Amino acid sequence: MDIIGLMATDLNLIGKLIYNVLYKWVNAWAGGTLLGAFSITVILFTVFLKAATSPFDVWQKVITRKNAKIMEVMKPQLDKITKQCGNNRELLMQKQRALYKQHKYSTFASCLPMLITLAIFIVVFSGFNSAVRFHNSKSFDDLSASYTAAYQAKTQEFIAEGKAAEQDGVLVPTEGYTAAGLKEEQIAAAEKAVLDNYKPERFLLTANIFMPDTWSSPVPSADVFSNTGIGKLGIKDVDANEYNKVMRPLIAKYNYSQSGKKTWNGYLILPILAFILNLLSTKLNKPPEQPQMIGQTEEQKKAQAAQTKMLTYLMPVMMTVFTFLYSTAFALYMFMNSFITTMFNLVYNIVAKKKDAKEKDYILSTTIKK
């Protein structure tokens, strides 16, 4: 069973924060805007989350920079003891540990950012999917109620106008009317009510922010809506026939053009931008050089370097895959998160380089004076 299948339909803690608190507040003043209320909710949530985690970001940068400087100092010594110890793995390990302790080098700190990023990713991913699933479930319930109310109102209208009579709960047409004709009018009235009450949450060129920014349909099919699996909503206890009956006018209007051609919900803009920014952020957030494992051959060292490089790019690729499979709301979060992180890394790197230059100038000046 995949991640979506493990999540309940009800909102989890982060989902409640996003949907019941932030979205409700934004909806009170941002309805009908170009971006849409939920888009603004996602943007604000991302900004608030980054602000809350900014002390950690700074702390992480400081430790990473400190480790990089320590590694720069230790590198000649590590190479020296590696040559001295030869194939004596136990002695090499002892000397490496002593050197790490002497210079206070933290091997855990170098992988901590990835672990924290992954933890936040999982929590936020769960929260967004919970909110998206809840919105789709609530939206369908509201539209189903509108459909039923309009259908019943039309029934009462027929009875009041003498077009039909109700016998044992069944609508029986009077002379001059047919059951098929009356039912057609009832369905037309019910479908009009669905169209009138449907309020799509757009995001710029994306038709529905609660569906992926891809070639997926703006209105989910019964299969996507009720089944579990990658890219599906997994909303239980929904009859497929009832869903198709209620959502038919929306599917016809939003999922197909006038010529009958299937329409896309989005144009892959956010997933592509999120990938580019994630990649750029990874480049700007380059970790310090890692020491080779004890007793490695040259081929093993090259393999380790290749593996490290692959793992560096694994996170951006993995997150991009998720933006393709899940909602535009999540893709928007990934884009905003990557944008803020990239800007932070860019500014920090500029400041750090200036600080390093000043430190080198100071060391050089004191050396000359001596």
Question: In a few lines, what is going on in this structure?
Answer:
With 370 residues, the chain is mostly helical.
Task: Give a written overview of the molecule.
The chain has 370 residues and is mainly alpha-helical. It has one domain (3-345). The protein is 72% helix and 2% strand. It is built from 11 helices and 2 strands, in the order H-H-H-H-H-E-E-H-H-H-H-H-H. It has helices at residues 3-6, 13-30, 37-85, 89-103, 107-160, 179-197, 222-226, 240-254, 269-284, 298-325, 328-369, and strands at residues 164-167, 170-173. The chain has a two-stranded antiparallel sheet. Strand 1 and strand 2 (170-173) form a beta hairpin. The longest helix is centred in the middle third of the chain and has 54 residues, at 107-160. The chain is elongated.
Describe this protein with a few key phrases.
370 residues, mainly alpha, two-stranded antiparallel ribbon, 11 helices
**Strand share of the residues?**
under 5%
Oligomer kind: single chain
Shape: elongated
> What's the alpha carbon Rg, rounded to whole Å?
30 Å
The CA-CA distance between the termini, in Å, is 69 Å
Q: Kindly state the percentage of residues in helix.
A: over 70%
Instruction: Find the structural class using helix and strand composition.
Output: mainly alpha
How many helices? The count is: 11
Return the average pLDDT rounded to an integer.
81
Q: Number of domains in the coordinates?
A: 1
- The parts where pLDDT drops under 50 for at least 5 residues are 1-9
Number of strands: 2
Main pleated-sheet profile? 2 strands, antiparallel
H/E element sequence: HHHHHEEHHHHHH
Strand order of the largest sheet: 1-2
